[in-house]
Amino acid sequence: MKPSETDIKNFWKKVKKTPGCWLWTASLVSKNGYGKFHFKLTGKTYRNISAHRASYTINTGPIPDKLFVLHRCDVKHCVRPDHLFLGTQQDNVRDCVSKGRWNPGRYHAFKTHCPQGHPYSITNTHNVNRKIKGVETGKTNRRCRTCAKLRARIYVSKNRTEINERNRKRWAENRELLCKKQQEYRKLRSES
Ligand SMILES: [Zn+2]
Ligand SMILES: [Zn+2]
Predict the structure, then answer these.
(1) What pLDDT, in 10s, does the model give residues 24-61?
(2) Residues 6+ apart with CB under 8 A from 111
């Protein structure tokens, strides 16, 4: 994507330069705080891209595939070219962690379905207390009941003979116990 003259002019109209960061003053993407910029393509279609990515494209050059534009200054709506640098997805995550923005719990909370696509509905969700090294955290993890059932079924089919044997043993023990109790009971009745 090559920015046109108008794109570049429009871009700089929305930037407020401070001695430190150059701030994006137009619309922000409400959820994540990054700036938003419309690129005009072939005079017709518009494409929404982040303002800092637009800045990189306009001032430095095209962004290679699968690379992220990261901030040195941690100001998400800053578009100053020398505050921006390229990084991989891994750099992006590492950057988030080092700046204390990484909260995997919050990330998981947005999920509405389990990895196999079953919904986290009330009846399909099992809330498990989350522990870190044996210490309760007061938070819960969601487990998919459908997946748990499927796992149990697979376990049973794989260990069929073992389970059958275990059950037979248990039943035999129970039968013995019951017989003993019945005998004792009969004895008591005949004596009285
Ligand atoms: Zn900055
Ligand atoms: Zn599932």
Answers:
(1) 988 776 566 788 887 665 555 667 788 899 899 889 98
(2) 120
If you measure from the C-alpha of residue 146 to the centroid of ligand 2, how many angstroms do you get, rounded to a whole number? Answer: 5
Topology of domain 5-102, CATH: Homing Intron 3 (I-Ppo) Encoded Endonuclease; Chain A (3.90.75)
Give distance in angstroms: CA of 114 to centre of ligand 2.
5
Question: 74 alpha carbon to ligand 1 midpoint, in Å?
Answer: 7
86 CB-contact burial (10 Å; exposed 0-12 / middle 13-18 / buried 19+):
middle
Tokens of 128: 């498990």
Show me where the domains of the chain are located: 5-102, 111-158, 160-191
CA of 4 to the centre of ligand 1 (A): 24
- Counting ligands in written order, which one lies closest to the CA of residue 124? 2
Q: What is the pTM for the complete model shown? A: 0.50
